[in-house]
Amino acid sequence: MNNFKELNVWKEAIKLAGLVYELTNSFPSEEKFGICSQLQRAVVSVSANIAEGAGRNNKGEFYHFLGIARGSNSEVESLLYVSIEIGIVKEGEISELLELLNKINNMLYKLQTTLK
């Protein structure tokens, strides 16, 4: 249906994944299979669901996968706030990530509205 690599929201989601992986490299080793792993899986899911939806057969399926991507984007945001709460990071250290998450959420929403 769409070439996902041309979608700006997919490009931003890839950027987000790189930043989250860079951040989680500094997490304590005891979090490798905990919050670190969950953050990495959730952030990869954002771009993957955009791509999968773009490759589907109709607008309804694309819309559905964009919704899943929005959910994963929210999961990443929540996990970052958990990371702040448990003292792994400080909010000031991840302000760029939080802004990018908000930008991606808005882009996904706008793309969904064009598909209705």
TrEMBL record:
A Pfam match: 23S_rRNA_IVP
Gene3D superfamilies according to UniProt: 23S rRNA-intervening sequence
InterPro entries cross-referenced by the UniProt entry: 23S_rRNA-intervening_sequence, 23S_rRNA_IVS_sf
Name of the protein in question: Four helix bundle protein
Organism name: Parvicella tangerina
